Amino acid sequence: MGSCLGSSSQSAGNEERRRLSSAKAEGAAKDGEKKQYSWEKRREEGGVDLSRYKVADVDSGTVIKEAGIVDGQHFIISNCKNSTIFVFDHCAAVTVDDCTDCKLFIGPTKGSIFLRNCTNIQCGLVCQQFRARDCKNVTSLLFCATQPIIESCSAMKFGCLQIQYKQLADQLKAADIVAFNNCWPTIHDFTAEGGKQHWSLLPSDVTLMTYFDMPAIVGEQGLLSSVEQLSSELGVGPIPLSHGEDIKVDDQVCLVVVFEQHMDTATKFASEFMHKVHKESETFLVQTRVTSMNADDCTRVFGQLEKNYIKLVDKGPVVGIEVYGDGCTDTCQEIMADLSSTDREGSVPAYYVSQDTYRGVRDVEQFWHFVSMTMSA
């Protein structure tokens, strides 16, 4: 009996070991498979062509995704070398992994654009969030609605993106991006070291054309008809050319605020003002912001003048514009007076311009303090 029980037990043990061994082998095989995200599985199950949403393993090639191809979905760029990749469409989020010696343009992205382990990249990016990790020598002409973040990176360069094509304005709306809210120069380095700077800001005259001729590349691919009105010139397009705080060397600043119940009118008027500022050789756009204000905010920003504007802030968001340069308060007042002339087409929204340099310093300080408080709330 003992021998019979022993034989049965040994047989059962062998069967269990075979089962466990088979399970381990199956698990190891799964571990060796490339990780697949849930949204990728859903696309495969739905019979969707995944090649629309990724560019991978391209070497010395050119890939252009036209408007309507990505159409607000997640997008992946990975393991590309010495290639040019343009995405003229809006995306949900974008990851760029393990790319070297590439030129990129990625259109309005509702979430984040995340660069990982990339080297020698020049790019134009439009996004709500920008992150880079383990990257080296990446030049980004950037629109970013929040503070750009880098981690374990070196030789990173940033500038203000200037881009225009026919579908861009609609794509910005689809991605919930307000073109005036660009935080491109406010870099946060998670791995900052004392005395060592891992990033720098580009000169304000640097454009995408400095690194690659986008219209020529698109033309070579026969796609100029689908990517209409393409330009990367300074001061062209819906994204204002802002210079950031570093441009200021003295207190010659002015605050302009545009009020309007209908923001399309306010933003159009503000855009016209900023284009005129760009043409003035002695004045520069520092930063802009679309934000909402209440009565208390109005009092903090405008002080004793608040009675003139307190009813206006209840009608909707305002557009705040900081201008720098010699005689900037006089210049801004003259531009606004010209734009408000009676022969101008369309309605003229209410606006505020700092009265003089002394008032300009106070206005700018109070307005951006208010903005920083609302952003951190």
Question: Key features?
Answer:
4-stranded antiparallel sheet, 8 helices, disordered N terminus, alpha/beta, 377 residues, 12-stranded parallel sheet
Tally of alpha and pi helices: 8
Oligomer: single chain
Question: For the residues shown, what is the average pLDDT?
Answer: 87
Helix content: 25-40%
Total strands:
16
Q: Which runs of at least 5 residues are low in confidence (pLDDT < 50)?
A: 1-13, 28-32
Calculate Rg over CA atoms.
27 Å
Largest beta-sheet characterization: 12 strands, parallel
* Alpha-carbon distance between the two ends: 78 Å
Query: What is the H/E order?
Result: HHEEEEEEEEEEHEEHEHEHEHEH
Q: Which structural class best describes the helix and strand composition?
A: alpha/beta
Shape: globular
Work out the strand percent.
25-35%
Explained architecture:
- By secondary structure, this protein is of the alpha/beta class.
- The chain is built from eight helices and 16 strands.
Write the layout of secondary structure elements.
Layout: H1 2-32, H2 38-45, E1 54-56, E2 62-65, E3 75-78, E4 84-87, E5 94-97, E6 100-116, E7 119-133, E8 136-144, E9 149-151, E10 156-160, H3 168-174, E11 188-189, E12 199-201, H4 214-220, E13 253-259, H5 263-279, E14 284-291, H6 295-302, E15 318-324, H7 328-339, E16 351-353, H8 357-376
Parallel strand pairs: 1-3, 2-4, 3-5, 4-6, 5-6, 6-7, 7-8, 7-9, 8-10, 9-11, 10-12
Antiparallel strand pairs: 13-15, 13-16, 14-15
